[in-house]
Amino acid sequence: MTSVASETLGYTVRIAEVIAETPDASSLVLDIPPELxxxxxxxxxxxxxxxxxxxRTGSVARCYxxxxxxxxxxxxxxxVKRTVDGYGSNWLCDNIxxxxxxxxxxxxxxxxxxxxxGDFQLFAAGSGITPVMSILKTVLTSATGTxxxxxxxxxxxxxxxxxxxxxxxxxxxxxxxxxxRLESExxxxxxxxxxxxxxxxxxxxxxxxxxxxxxTMVKQTLTGIGYDRHRIHIEEFRSLEGxxxxxxxxxxxxxxxxxxxxxxxxxxxxxxxxxxxDATLIDVMVNAGIDAxxxxxxxxxxxxxxxxxxxxxxxxxxxxxxxxxxxDGYILGCQAKPTSPTLKIEx
Length: 347
Known about the structure:
By secondary structure, the chain is α/β, with parallel strands linked by helices. Helices cover 20% and strands 32% of the residues. It is built from eight helices and 18 strands. The strands form four sheets. A six-stranded antiparallel β-sheet has the order 4-3-6-1-2-5. The chain has a five-stranded parallel β-sheet with strand order 9-8-7-10-11, with helices on both faces. Strands 13-12-18-14-16 form a five-stranded mixed β-sheet. Helix 5 crosses helix 6. The longest helix is centred in the middle third of the chain and has 14 residues, at 129-142.
């Protein structure tokens, strides 16, 4: 198979296998050709953006978390759970089979450990286990710390990766603690059950993924028993409104448009760029040939989150950032436009 870089952004790759995880969830295993291996390098906890055909709009874009681990799995696996009235998830579960092609953007996302050192506390509900599973497997196989997982579901039939989790618990009995919270048996998660599970792990790095009420409860409970909020990482699933596969806007400078000067530090390298007032930072970086992190380009996914070190911006849409992120100086590169003559930004 030959991969295709079309006139839109992204790549067409083949589905190697479809795995039925539960009655409502399937995993898609991707066959990434060797020439794209570098573009599809990923970190545990990241996601892929998938282009899905639509009779009404031509296509829609949806983000699905990667469940595989870069340290243990030869192929990328994303997991899709049906949602009520969810066009994208239902189309994929009903139509995609092994041998089909899908159009995807390379891996992206910031829900990933900056370091694998130390201990980890993981909290997932429903399909929120998907990126958490990637982090869990990577830490167990590539690091030495302990991992504790609190996993909430409706009932036993709803548990995604149940067999794999049980096998990991058996293989790593001294490093991996697993607690299933099943609504059908013990009720919904409560602050008390979360406190009992998490108390004593205040020095751990925390990752939380699931419905918003669950994630809010976890964060409030943990900060209430002494966890540092900066060590708590939250992921959210969002439906994208725009088209992240559309070509990047061409940025030009002219005497008619005010421009600022920005120093952008990415992966240890600092770039000095002219930043027109009517362009976003991501547009400027991509036009300069920089491999900038982004996915949705609508302010919805958080892949392009960066820190405003110096200067001011019009932040634009910041739905992907919570108030704590904003207070810490985070902005979204796909939305921000300059409002000061000079700026410094770090990814």
